[in-house]
Amino acid sequence: MVRDIIRDKAFLAQKAEAATPEDLPVAQDLLDTLAAHKDGCVGMAANMIGVNKRIIVFDNEGTSMVMFNPEIVKKSEPYQAEEGCLSLSGIRKSKRWKSIKVQYQNEKFQTRFKTFTGWMAQIIQHEIDHCEGVLI
Questions:
Q1: How many angstroms separate the first and last alpha carbons of the chain?
Q2: Which of 5, 75, 86, 104 could cysteine-pair with 70, CB 3.0–4.6 Å?
Q3: Catalytic site includes residue 127
Q4: What is the pTM of this model?
């Protein structure tokens, strides 16, 4: 189901709770909402649709990917980026890392590790910031 985008900064600034298998429908709603906003959005976190759980989705080079309880466990090569967000107006500067290693759970809640670089790494960092209650 396509959900409304949350713009309430007080809600968005809350740290998200761990996702559980009961949250699988939220991931589908995130995927549907991301698809509806594909022209101006490449990733979303659950708090952007009003659910305070650690779930992110993003376009992984043409294929949608879901991560439950993502955490960056390794990062290298910092740089300054400028980013926009559906939940916030304007463009803001943010510190990002060119390479990140992420620990997350898949749809079966199996723990996985994957390294991302460049644009994909930047998208994931932005969405994990949402999970941490960080507003860029």
A1: 27
A2: 104
A3: yes
A4: 0.95
CATH superfamily for 9-131 is: Peptide deformylase (3.90.45.10)
* From 22, 77, 107, 127, active-site residue: 127
Of 10-19, 22-31, 81-90, 99-108, which gets the smallest average pLDDT? Answer: 81-90
Q: Where are the domains of the chain?
A: 9-131
Distance in angstroms (rounded) separating the CA atoms of residues 55 and 30: 9
Alpha helices per DSSP H over 7-117 = 9-12, 24-36
Neighbouring C-beta atoms of residue 18, cutoff 10 Å:
12
Residue 136: pLDDT over 80: no
